[in-house]
């Protein structure tokens, strides 16, 4: 275990060290992968919305917020900005007029279709540092950590 400046119980030092490594790795990989979004002038959230609708089809704002881990207020702004650029459109759902379905416009489909293959290739290249088995294990561990019930670690 790498030394840390924190001088606490071993279990805390280990957990904090793992957390810092997880966050640093996430930030570093994310920064490298998302560099290509500067040219089409997309934020990471805008890319996330385009990618989700491209692969999953029309989604409500609430579904999109959940998929890309954004608040409902933030997702509204992201969609507003994509709509202003002509990349998505809102359509009222026929079965429930209170909700809008977010759909790609032809321009949005063309843009995400042109940048997603490079995005996927960059992810594959970044992950090549890990073997196939390590990638599977990382996926399993991240899912386990992400699905932990809130308060489970502290017993609350």
Structure explained in plain terms:
With about 160 residues, the chain is mainly α. The protein is about 60% helix and about 10% strand. It has one domain (about 10-145): Arc Repressor Mutant, subunit A. The chain has six helices and three strands. Strands 1-3-2 form a three-stranded antiparallel sheet. Helix 2 (about 45-55) packs across helix 5. The longest helix has 24 residues, at about 10-35. It starts with 9 loop residues before the first helix and ends in a 9-residue tail after the last helix. The model has no long low-confidence stretch (mean pLDDT about 90).
Strand order of the largest sheet: 1-3-2
Beta-strand residue percentage: 5-15%
CA radius of gyration is: 19 Å
Class from helix and strand fractions = mainly alpha
What secondary-structure arrangement, pairings included, does this model have?
Elements: H1 10-33, H2 44-56, E1 59-60, H3 61-68, H4 72-84, E2 88-92, E3 100-104, H5 106-127, H6 132-147
Antiparallel strand pairs: 1-3, 2-3
Helix pairs in contact: 2-5, 3-4
In brief, what are we looking at here?
With 156 residues, this protein is mostly helical. It has one domain: Arc Repressor Mutant, subunit A (Orthogonal Bundle), CATH 1.10.10.10. 62% of the residues lie in helices and 8% in strands.
Which key terms come to mind for this protein?
single chain, 156 residues, mainly alpha, Arc Repressor Mutant, subunit A, three-stranded antiparallel beta sheet, 6 helices, 8% strand
């Amino acid at each position: 275990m790498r030394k840390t400046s924190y001088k606490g119980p071993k279990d805390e030092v280990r957990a904090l060290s793992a957390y810092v490594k997880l966050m640093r790795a996430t930030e570093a990989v994310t920064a490298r992968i998302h560099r290509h979004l500067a040219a089409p002038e997309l934020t990471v959230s805008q890319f996330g919305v385009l990618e989700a609708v491209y692969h999953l089809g029309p989604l409500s704002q609430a579904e999109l917020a959940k998929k890309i881990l954004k608040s409902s207020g933030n997702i509204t702004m992201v969609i507003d900005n994509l709509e202003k650029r002509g990349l998505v459109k809102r359509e009222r759902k026929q079965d429930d007029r209170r909700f809008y379905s977010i759909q790609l416009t032809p321009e949005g489909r063309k843009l995400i279709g042109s940048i997603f293959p490079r995005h996927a290739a960059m992810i594959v290249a970044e992950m090549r540092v890990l073997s196939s088995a390590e990638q599977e294990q990382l996926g399993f561990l991240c899912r386990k950590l992400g699905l932990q019930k809130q308060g489970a670690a502290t017993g609350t």
